[in-house]
Task: structure prediction
Amino acid sequence: MKILVCISNVPDTTTKISFSSDNKELNTAGVQFVINPYDEYALTRALELKESLGGTVTVLNVGLADTEANIRKALAIGADDAIRVNLKPTDSFLVAQQIAEVAKNEAYDLILMGKESVDYNGAQVHGMVAELLGWPAIVPAIKLDVAGNTATLEREIEGGKEIVKVNLPIVVSCQQPMSEPRIPNMRGIMTARTKPLKVVEPVSGEAKTQTEAYALPEKKSGVKLIDPANAGELITLLRNEAKII
Amino acid sequence: MSVLVFVECADGKVKKSALEAAFYGHQVATQLGTSAVAVAIGEVAADELKNLGQYGITKVLHDTETRLKDYVSQAYVKVVAAAVEKENATVIVLSNTNIGSGIGARLAARLQASFATNVVALPELAGNSLKVKKSVFSGKAFADEVLTAPTKIIAVKKNAIEVNTVGTHEAEVESFTASLTDADFTGAPRETIRATGDVLLTEADVVVSGGRGMRGPENWHLIEDLAKALGAATACSKPVADVGWRPHHEHVGQTGITISPNLYIAVGISGAIQHLAGVNSSKVIVVINKDPEAPFFKAADYGIVGDIFEVVPKLIEAAKALEK
Ligand SMILES: Cc1cc2nc3c(=O)[nH]c(=O)nc-3n(C[C@H](O)[C@H](O)[C@H](O)COP(=O)(O)OP(=O)(O)OC[C@H]3O[C@@H](n4cnc5c(N)ncnc54)[C@H](O)[C@@H]3O)c2cc1C
Result:
């Protein structure tokens, strides 16, 4: 089993978001960057599959050198080796092209990634990679098992789930309760230093979108409190004032 | 040149999120001085499709091939791509659902198109580009994104735009087929298990949600009764699903599902940032918590500081008394 896990480097979810004075950049000062939480489900499921079926897990990140701390973390958790495509990821399509290029030259059985990144919430890269490779994409998946050349998955649908059986290779996007993310231990951290991290230059590609400016949502005007003794008044307010029910 | 809307259907009906996409597509078409055509896949009542005329759709291409009864991304993308080609569409509008964004992503790669998800407003025209506003950082911010490729795909976030009907005209329904092969159907579902409950969480306009403050599953009738009286779906926080009081598909938040109903009522939920990430784009948020310092009150529009077991029965009574 040869598995590729794509990880993205995102601000920790507890980060208070703010932007530069021209609103063009995220203020990264003091922000801790982590492996995208959904990607951690992909990574740990990949490691579990490797542990039961044998094989290798490679992590891939499209990013500049500042993402290497999180790539090393993925190696410390148990991935065998890593690839960094040396490109600032400004657009999903650009990222997908790089991933597809790496995958084209290696015979991966599975490409796993998170359902979406918690920064741009695009939920696009998996579908794009699958299309570029001509593979099926099962997104978003909450369960993944592999036996021989066949994967059995549970895919979340609006209001339920579907059970899918499909031959490898496939692209899968992962979400809870796919696996229980792991914390690296001391031994993992030590061995991660010696594991191979290959840096490759990007293939040429063109971004199809450009982020022009960011904005914060308007502040809520504050909560209107209702006396618990007259709780029913809330329903009246929701109908007559908020006009929402 | 035209605008093509992918209309998502389920159980023989056009989904509400698809009506939003249809109206959005109509508005974009008006901006561009063209018309909006829809494509629908699978079994759905003809009247449902004709009714799309009221949302500004002039024509619906309907593919009823039986193999398409379940969603398979490659096959669906082929059908939509064929419709794009037939209608010479330069803008494609979809709903920001698992299916909609799944189709959008494959289609974008296939057509070398610009693709924006989580879009919350109508686009601005900027030369040959469109500028859209989208929700980013798990609802903590917005981004203005310029779609620069000749073909543009937009996935519209639920409840983000106000839908109006535009007259009473009926859309013309035309049957349509794309040449699909068996290979397009690899990964077709073996079995589909639908959640029980009257209202689907992802489609709901009103959601009543319970947290650890509910103390146990034996108290969930309070959540269910309030939901029933308001025609709402039910949801929960992560620890509630983790201990098995409620199924995982009800868990909302950063690691659960993201929803944007018109009204979100949080009962006994503290409002941790990971929970807020899944619900903060709800239009109106109501918080019921006995702790006045619960962080959720900062994100709330209405709040009651009080004990669930005293407050919720009063709400149920008042909601039942509403004239529907
Ligand atoms: C990586 C990560 C991802 C996460 N993802 C999610 C996610 O997707 N969704 C999610 O929900 N959480 C998520 N969490 C967990 C999150 O941080 C919180 O722990 C969780 O949301 C708390 O759930 P709660 O509010 O139900 O419980 P608690 O924090 O225990 O809060 C219970 C609340 O109920 C109130 N209460 C108790 N009794 C009563 C009463 N009788 N009447 C009125 N009020 C009462 C209390 O005052 C309290 O505010 C995540 C955490 C991490 C680290």
About this structure: The radius of gyration of chain A is 21 Å. Chain A touches chain B through 78 residues (CB under 8 Å).
